[in-house]
Amino acid sequence: MKVIQLRQVKANVLAFSEDNDLEDGLSFSNMVTDDKGYACEIVYGRILIAQIK
Question: Full-prediction pTM beyond 0.85?
Answer without folding.
Answer: no
